[in-house]
Amino acid sequence: MITMTEIARLTGVSQPTVSRVLNGNKAVNPEIRERVLACAREYDFQPNVIAQSLVGSRTHLIGVVLTDISNAFFADLVKYLEQEARREGYSLILFNSNYNKEHEKECLDVVRRYRVDGLIAVPVDEDSAHWRGMIKKLDIPTVVITRKVAGMDSVYVAHDEAGAQVGRHLYEQGYREYIFFGRSEDIKYQGFVSALAERDRDFQQHVTVVASKEETVVREAMAEYFSKKREKTGIFAYNDRRAVQMMGILHQMGIRIPEQAGIVGFDNIYICEHLYPKLSSVSQPNEEMATLAMKRLLYKIEHSEDLQVMDCPLKAKLVSRNSSVPFRK
Description:
Blueprint: H1 4-11, H2 15-22, H3 30-42, H4 49-54, E1 61-66, H5 72-87, E2 91-96, H6 101-113, E3 118-121, H7 129-138, E4 142-145, E5 153-157, H8 159-172, E6 177-181, H9 187-197, E7 207-210, H10 215-228, E8 233-237, H11 240-253, E9 261-267, E10 280-283, H12 286-302, E11 311-314, E12 317-319
Parallel strand pairs: 1-2, 1-3, 3-4, 4-5, 5-11, 6-7, 6-8, 8-9, 9-10
Antiparallel strand pairs: 10-12
């Protein structure tokens, strides 16, 4: 790859002059400017963005740290983030923390070394003082996506309201026993049970939480549960991957869906339409969320003096399908 020093030698001008031309300085003599640009085009010159950043120039790189890039929801989100960034002349560097705090720290260390201009982050634990400390140490514009973090720019879906939609839906479909497939600390769960509480004073006696994702643990829990319960059970899984897992287990157990157990997932990934029965799921406005987050980040890069914080909750929508709604003849 040709360097600015080699371009200077080939064109007979100084290296500082080459640097000024390639950095867009219009004050250089037009004939010299064209000679330098022609040489750069001929040899396909590519600037060293890391070296540029060391002398104060922007890299036009955005770091994106996600919790699980194998999840189709995040893949979709990245697609829209990249589209918006590219439109403004930026590129993405993608990192996957895999819900591991130590790995997340390593990702942020690399973000610092690459001197990116800004960061889009899905934190493993948004309430962690350690995570906040790492972000503060980066000292670059940061926008949190899919989560709400007090005191930081955040673009997210209101998970409590989305969970409440699921609670109302399952109750209206006649389910009177409930399983939440996830952790009770999840804001989705809190919204889910708040909706049930409005309809059943004794709801707590009818809600079971299955927190483990391990196949054998979930299978044993379901075998024990359905050996005792006879009422129709509504199941809310914290994402579609877990909902698909639950559907497979129940099919193997001979539990009829949705007659004995109705299932609702979260994220509405493409596979929901292609299962049998089709999976009900909460759809998030991925394109809007990604576009707003990236626009906000690029604004903060350009206006570092603006210290106002943007809190942007978006509304999700439950898409009901036959995994929770009886088939219509």
